[in-house]
Amino acid sequence: MYDFAYQKPSNVADAVAALGADPEAKAVAGGMTLIPVLKQRLNRPSVVVDLAKTGLAGITAGAGSITIGAMTTHAAVAHSADVQRVIPALAALAGLIGDEQVRHRGTIGGSLANNDPAADYPAAALALGATITTTKRAIKADDFFQGMFTTALEPDELITKVEFPAATKANYQKFRNPASRYAIVGVFVAQTAAGVRVAVTGAGQGGVFRHTAMEAALSKNFSADAIADVVTPADDLNGDIHASSEYRAHLIGVMARRAVAAAA
Amino acid sequence: MSKHHVTTTINGEETEFLCETQETLLDVLRNTLNLTGSKEGCASGDCGACSVIADGTLVCSCLMLGVEAEGKTITTVEGIADGETLHPVQRQFLEHAALQCGFCTPGFIVATKALLDANPDPTEEEARYWLAGNLCRCTGYDKIIRAVMDAAAEMRGEARAA
User: Fold this and answer.
1) Distance from CA of A105 to the nearest CA of B (A)
2) CB B23 within 8 A of CB B66
3) Which residue of A223, A232, B9, B103 could cross-link A249, Cys pair, CB 3.0 to 4.6 Å?
4) 3-state helix, strand and coil shares in percent for chain A, rounded to the nearest 5
């Protein structure tokens, strides 16, 4: 790691001020991406602003939704009785992120703000139609994700909480890289009051995306058979040493059918 | 850059140290505090050889900055035994010869301790899921899992699981 300064503000306003004061500042939540990146010297922030004391952790169950504070760890979401009750697929997804050590440090806000193209939470946020509340505004998931590692967030804007509407049916299926446990392909299927949505992570060159052809088919008939013949073009998908774009296209169909079949 | 003064509790003792911002907790444990039981394997959070328990949660000390440890209660592998008396997890790892080169063992011991603190009666599947972040390139995991299951049974005061 290169040298950097370190600040640990005790509230959100001070954290925003610290980030706004220096364009080279970086916020750290759980650090499960930032610290490896710093170790690889891929990033050189002047100051790292630690959000640990900003009081943004916590889970509340509302009428027909779950709201999760940005600094809530994956382990807390996975083990939350409220999340398990209202959106069991979301709790299950959190339990599939990384390993136990990662789940005890990594946070939902960090994951969404990073928008890794193979991360799990973006698929849940997009499929469930989550609302991401920041220090400046409320952003719909559809507007939040803007391409690989790119979001609507401004440099001095922090996620404070994320609200997920309850789903009548939802499931997440991940074909994971056995070493990193990132998604080679992950598909989140959700049926909510707003309709059926299918979000795909791990596969798209532009990060997480909605599979509109599958959504149309499932809106008419929510069954695995309904999407058996939906073809996913490989053109805009990632191909790398782990999986070709054609293989990812195939996996999207397999994971989506499994998710629909398992959705409860 | 000036060093940061950090106050923690490590293995039951209040411990203060000075560190640079770019030092990880693992760097501090090994190089400053001479607690060299925690190992640096991958240094990227994949192998779990640096596992410690921080405020009751299992974490990779290589992915936590030393300054992030401020105010935290840390348990390393050096804090698992009770003086000269080995913890049941340690004894069962020896009993089952659940190691070959031994490099991953401290991480496994700490991770197993954290597992059994959270869940005294895990199924084998739960144990394997919990320990998925600890890599062993020698044993194939079978003896490790047998040691974990027997340690759990011993700690519950039951006879051997198998």
Assistant:
1) 7
2) yes
3) A232
4) 35, 25, 40
Q: Which of B38, B53, B79 is the last residue of a domain?
A: B79
Q: How many CB pairs under 8 A join A and B?
A: 76
Angle at B92 between CA B117 and CA A100, to 5 degrees: 40
A99, B4: Cβ pair inside 8 Å? no
Q: What are B146's two structure tokens?
A: 């047998």
Could B64 and A31 be called an inter-chain contact, meaning their C-beta atoms sit closer than 8 Å? yes
* Chain B CB contacts of A105 below 8 Å: 57, 59-60, 63-64
Return the ∠ at Cα A95 (arms to A27 and B78), rounded to 5°.
75
Q: Can you give the residue range of the structural domain that contains B48? A: 4-79
How far away is chain A from the Cα of B108, in angstroms, using its nearest Cα?
12
Distance, in angstroms, between B162 CA and closest chain A CA? 26
Chain A residue with the nearest C-alpha to that of B57: A104
Among all residues of chain A, which has the CA nearest to that of B52?
Answer: A101
Distance between alpha carbon A57 and the CA centroid of its chain, in Å? 16
Burial-class residue B42 by CB neighbours within 10 Å (0-12, 13-18, 19+): middle
Q: What is the CATH number of the domain that holds A188?
A: 3.30.465.10
DSSP state of A207: S
pLDDT in tens, A136-184: 999 999 999 999 999 999 999 999 999 999 999 999 999 999 888 999 9
Q: List per-residue pLDDT tens for chain A, 264 residues long.
A: 899 999 999 999 999 999 999 999 999 999 999 999 999 999 999 999 999 999 999 999 998 999 999 999 999 999 999 999 999 999 999 999 999 999 999 999 999 999 999 999 999 999 999 999 999 999 999 999 999 999 999 999 999 999 999 999 999 999 999 888 999 999 999 999 999 999 999 999 999 999 999 999 999 999 999 999 999 999 999 999 999 999 999 999 999 999 999 997
Residue B162 lies in a domain: no
